[in-house]
Amino acid sequence: MRRDGTDYGRKLLAFPAGHVDPGETVTACALRETAEELALCLIRAICVLPA
Fold this sequence. Notes:
The protein is mainly α. Helix content is 25%, strand content 0%. The chain has one domain (1-46). It has 1 helix and no strands. The longest helix has 13 residues, at 26-38. 0% of the residues are buried.
């Protein structure tokens, strides 16, 4: 995603960003912001790593 709307970092690539809504988890916020800003639907997966 290209940054725009501000002179800071203009025309550079950036990750989707935003604020966590009240009662929202950080993970839910990341998924929502990605959907809003990039029009991508991501599915939350549980990753199990070997011990």
